[in-house]
Structure formats: C-alpha cells, structure tokens
Amino acid sequence: MDEEFDYVEDEFEDEEDEPENDKYGTYTFGTDPEIFMVNEGKLIPAFEVLEKHPEWRQGNHQTYKAFWDGFQAELNFRHGVNCLAYAGDDIRDGLIYLRKKLREKYPNGKLTIQNTFSIKEYLGKVEPGYLELGCAPSKNAYGDKPINPYMAKKIDQRWAGGHLIFGSDDKILKPHEIAKKFDLLLGIWAVGVAASIDNPNRRMFYGRAGEFRDKVLPAVTEYHQSVYTFEYRTLSNFWMCHPAISQLVFEFGRYIMNHLNDKKMLWVEPVATDDMVKEIINKCDVIEARKFVEKHKIFYLNMFTRMFYDKPWIGRKAVELSLNGVEFLVKNPLDVEGNWELDWAGYQGHSDHDYARFSGFATNGHLKSFDCQLNKEKV
Asked: CA–CA separation, 238 vs 231, rounded Å?
C-alpha cells in the first residue's frame, strides 16, 4: 500500500468535538429491492409465481410484502428500521420466501443477481398489465425527463433496482441536492464495485443519475406518526450479492444523510461537475469511476474509517471494493443464495455472524460463528 493511501487522522480532539450525528443516525432506513428469478438459466416472470397484492407477512423484525412488479419480484417493507442488521435479517427472510414460492412451481429455480433481462419473447404475448412499469416516474435532480411508464409496453428489457429509503419525523429539505450528493459519493463509488454485475443498458431507462423520490408516508397505526422520506433510486440491486455488501451500502447511505450539512466531517470533499457525474453513472463508466475514487481515496478512506469506528483496515477494504470490483472480497457475487446462506437453519441474525456484517466480513471473510456452525443443517 503506497504512503498516499495511509489513513489520515481527522481533526477531532475528543468526542465533545464530534458532530452530534457522528455515529448514530437519526434517520430510519428502508428499502424495496427487486430481484429476478430463473430456471435452468431462463427468466421466470415473477407474475407466474407471486401475487400482485399479497397480504403482509411477518419477517424477523417487520412486516413485508413479496409480490410481482412486472417480470421481477419485489420486497416491500412496511416500516423503516434504526438497526441496519435488522434490515439485513428481513431481506434474508424475504429472499427465503421468494425462493420457496419459485420452487413450488420450478423445483430447480434460483434467484439471480443479474439485473437486466430481455423480454422480447413476451412482447405482444402476455397481458398488458404484466408489461407495465409498476411505479410512478422518479424525480430527477438534474432535470432530466423521466421514462414514461406507458412506454414500457414497447421496451424489450426489464431491470431490477435496489433503492435506499430514509425516513424522518422532520421534513427532509432540498431533496435535489441530497440526490446529487448521493451520486457524487455513493453512486460513482458503486459503479466501480458493481462492474461485473451492472449492465449499462439498464441506465438507458432506469436508475439514471439523480433519480429520487420524496414524499410523506401516512401513519400506519395510532402509535406511528407520518414520516417524511427520501428515496435514492439510482442504484441497481448489485448490493444484494452478499449481506455484508448490503450492510456497507446501507451504512454508506445513512452516513451521507447524517452528514449532509456537516462540512467539518467531510474533510476535503470530492468535486465534480454535474455532467461528469451523470456521464460516469449513466454509462456505467468503470474506468472513470475508479479514476475518481483513486483521485479522492484519502477522502473515501477517512469516511469509511470513521463509518466503521476508526478501523482503517476496514476503510481500506471498502475503498478497494470500488477500485477492484466486488470480487475483491466476495468470491462468487453471482451466488446470491449461497452468499445469503438461505439454506442455513442455524442463522441467528446479522449481529451474530461476522460474514453478514461488513466489518466482520472484511476482517475474517465468509466465516460463520463456531457455535452456530455446530447446529448447521439444511432447511
């Protein structure tokens, strides 16, 4: 490791100098990830095995729905959570349920992290409702026009997203600026990480730079007040390749939200024009993304180190993920079922297993705790 890449200490003398929201966020976190299903390499439309409007299911920590959104399956979680480990547990529970429903009809069916599929063979052959895009157009921080949902019947591809949703009791101001901040810091970094997973064709239609939504969610019970939300909609579902990568991306997003107005915490923040950011993200330009991260690696290293409680070796791994791709840490990122240990009945939650947390995974690799390993069995 060259000297330039060494950890640069920040300027805080003691804990009293640290910003109020340094490590423990005030935003709840949620997500509504999409994923495709295949059988012997062939796309299985989610509408073949799932309902459109199912009942809420009880997950590990919150209720969720698993339904078809056109050709892809989607998980929708009812409430945001404060603990990111809980979010990971619920996603794993949802993936197990999706695979169960798939295998009721296709015993050899699998979930796949491939996020772009051709649907040419289905155009003009399935009911129009199956071809519709299941959500309203995104807003765009750069003023780019959204894709018209009604154009979907003519588009011969479908894509899976991995949106990040942050909730607050207080109104979230300047969402356009927040979306640009996410693009600059997380979006470009993610292009390098997902080099072997993301397909540039996807961003011709979906998940372009600057895509977001902001809205107010109504109270669902008398004990829950309305929540203001910001949803970053640029990322694909690449982070579902492994629970530790999911946790890292969630932590990254929450960190940005907690330090939006905290200039002291961002050190020398990267600078780029809007056009440069859009070019890198919309074209999935891995070369330029990695040049950007390389140029600003001291910033990224400091940020990730602070994010993971002043452990620079973990910060380095997070930077290297973008410079080398997710394979730098995840042996087989396409094995989403194996990486999430969907067959492991001894699983006891993110917080109990190093492989499911980025800090533990970056340090020890995909190792499960000894006590739980003794109880491992097939579901």
From this structure: 17
